[in-house]
Amino acid sequence: MLFAAERLMTSCHLSIDLVIGDVAITQGKSYWACCVDPSSYLVKVGVGLESKLQEWFQVPQDVVSPRYDPDSGHDSGAEDTTVEAPPPYAFLTIGMGKILLSHGSSLTSRDPNGCTVPLPPRIGICLDYEQGKVSFYDAVSFRELWECGVDCSGPVCPAFCFIGGGALHLQELVANKQERKVTIGGFPKLD
């Protein structure tokens, strides 16, 4: 199911709820942490360009499907000259008490295939706006889980996608231990 989660956004009959942070990041380094309820069906935790996140959920999903190829049909070579830009958003996929890690990443996993790792009690997200990089951590041991590039050409927001319901606690100020609860789909409160 976790592998299908990457394709689930294209033709899904489950409820999909996107929560976008109300404060956009436009400079510097930012860090926050969250606790995902292990009984959540499927949760994506990450960041994205504010404009692209809103656009993503307003456009029919078949258009943004990885199978959609906007090839013009001619072989002018113009398609070959484009430089690959970083993606407009980066999400860590969580479900069934595990984290799905993308292929080809520099992961420190005990799984020999590097596909899934157990869900830690807290996940830390660190965005380096100037470097255009987001890193995901086990916020208890501070072990890096995954790092990737993200487009920081505009305001970037924390984002959480709930597929089929889920819950998490967001720790806005890690040093002060202040928490805000986000619940989607009627899951019980976390202690």
UniProtKB/TrEMBL annotation:
Name of the protein this chain belongs to: TRI46 protein
Superkingdom of source: Eukaryota
InterPro entries hit by this protein: B30.2/SPRY (IPR001870), B30.2/SPRY_sf (IPR043136), ConA-like_dom_sf (IPR013320), E3_ligase_FN3/SPRY (IPR050617)
GO cellular component: axon cytoplasm; main axon
Gene: Trim46_1
PROSITE patterns in the cross-refs: B302_SPRY
B30.2/SPRY domain mapped to chain residues: 1-179
Family matches, as Gene3D superfamilies: 2.60.120.920
Any one Gene Ontology BP term: microtubule bundle formation
Organism: Sakesphorus luctuosus
